[in-house]
Amino acid sequence: MTIDSVRGAPGDPGPAEPELVQLLTPEGQRVEHPDYPLELGADEVRALYRDLVTVRRIDLEAVALTRQGELGIWASLLGQEAAQIGSGRALGEHDMVFPTYREHGVAWCRDVDPLNLLGLFRGVNHGGWDPAKYGFHLYTIVIGSQTLHATGYAMGIQRDGVLGTPSAGATIAYFGDGATSQGDVNESFVFASVFNAPIVFFCQNNQWAISEPLEKQTRIPLYRRAQGYGFPGVRVDGNDVFACLAVTRKALEAARTGQGPTFIEAYTYRMGAHTTTDDPTRYRLKAEEEAWKLKDPIERVKAYLVRGDLADSAFFEEVEADAKAMARELRAACLALPDPEPLSIFENVYAEPHPLMTEEQEQFAAYLASFEEASR
Amino acid sequence: MTTLTLGKALNEGLRKAMDDDPKVLIMGEDVGKLGGVFRITDGLQKDFGEERVIDTPLAESGIVGTAIGLALRGYRPVVEIQFDGFVFPAVDQIITQLAKMRMRSLGKVELPVVVRIPCGGGIGAVEHHSESPEVYFTHTAGLRVVACSNPADAYSMIQQSIASPDPVVFFEPKRRYWDKADVDTETADWTPLHAARVVRPGDDVTVLSYGPAVKTCLEAAVAAGEEGRSVEVIDLRSLNPLDIETVTASVHRTGRCVVVHEAAVFSGYGAELAARITERCFYRLEAPVLRVGGFSTPYPPSRIEDHYLPDLDRILDAVDRTFGW
Ligand SMILES: Cc1ncc(C[n+]2csc(CCOP(=O)(O)OP(=O)(O)O)c2C)c(N)n1
Ligand SMILES: [Mg+2]
Cβ separation of A142 and B35 shorter than 8 Å? Predict the structure, then answer.
């Protein structure tokens, strides 16, 4: 290991493109990487393509629903589909995901009903799915908290003594470039390293933390931080679903076999606003967005499929139509989501009946009933 | 007089403070080009530069911790916490360091740091964006804790807080950011920072509140007035220190008191008020001090937050109950 004494230049988070692991160019050209061999059948590529299109369509529908006032807010994954589908499809059944609030693509890979995600952003619940059932923890909105939970969960896997066996799982913690500044995230690196925990840190560097560009968080490429904590870091083309798949697979396998943590920096771009309430024209240039459009994660897979004669126009039309139909159903289901009962406010706060909950619930029920009486 | 929204009044107050004192700095997430997610610092980086309006790394403990360091070096940092629910990573720095430095140094060290926190619900947000965490701070000696409720106070109180030699936790009622009112930006002849204010005089019952709930209390007072009940509304403005004299003077006259806040009632600020009023006005009280506030639960999903937040009806219900005792 070399000691890196080079200071990052002010405002320069280091060389970007040359260090990326890439298996599929933006033009749809397959390239090899010595450390990441990947064999994919035509079926598998078509399935990845279908995933990518589907999650983009779900996302689009959610944005539209927000514009129409049906959701309170939405955090779009536009541009990050490959990072999420690639890493999400690398997961095995025993793995456990700890997402942020933007991992709709990963949720899709874990079979979490997108309606659940819409429910959270509509404001009918705070998530509410069973993390254990899907191997997909609740969305975490407080930046960085979940990285420690993922590390602790990984320490549990370690203590179960399953690493290296077929029932071994790993955890994967998702977080953003901005999150890397948070104390919790840095503490999770320390814990994971010291305990050699079976965890993959999957950082989607989408270049922005709301209005703050990457250089407000770091002077060196993020993946190189891993070295300081004592585990490998790798930067992958986050818009390349093949590379994200291969790199995440390898990191998960290392974790499951007791080799400890890996940091993956998926170099990508947040094509949309931070959330539907954000206005990126206040802080970034259209030209930057245009440049990233050329690296679209879906177009390159399509180009690859067409170039290799692995799919015909009927396939693409079908995928499009299916995604559209699904979005239509999702919209209808979202509109039909009932508001929670007011008295449900008091539910699930404690395991057992709690005197204060009971008292307040009874008082509130009587209060609500007084209106009904009055209106009778 | 100019008509300003509460948000703009804060912005103008910050601008004035920065103009008046070159040591005043603004720090936080997205406070620069974006002007903060609520635009409270809009245009300030453009006019005062990146050295004074600092987009920090995304780390609240870091923000408050470095603000303490800057204050040690003679600066007056005004820190923006993006939302109430995100102050918690900074709570260690606020409670163990910011609050206690004066005492630990036997008065030699001063930390004039202001921590601005948009607080409260009612904006249809997802979780952690609608919290009312004031009592964690009022319970911590060494901090001054204030809450503005209207544009004029926003303008003056932010400047008074920045001038304070002690650290101030400054609560901003986020759902009132867009409320408009006349603000006199020419005068600095302000109500003292820690004085409460009678915002609507009345004779029959005293309603105490602060922050976003003040407006709801005023609406309730109007409604009660139509039914022939004269409600006095006091905007506490300062939670620590508390202007107990203004409060007791009122309750002495009315003999009835209702406290209203968005935070949970159990162990909430109203408990302190009720205890103090009982101690000081015991023989004058016609009814116990009643409290209206959030339930003792996590903040609910936004579709039912209106049930959680104290509204006009719940305030009137409590007012009625003080007469039924
Ligand atoms: C502790 C905390 N502080 C502030 C916020 C407000 N906030 C929400 S998202 C965000 C930026 C996150 O940036 P990044 O980690 O890069 O993730 P991205 O949103 O780009 O996916 C901020 C500051 C928060 N949710 N939690
Ligand atoms: Mg980001």
Answer: no
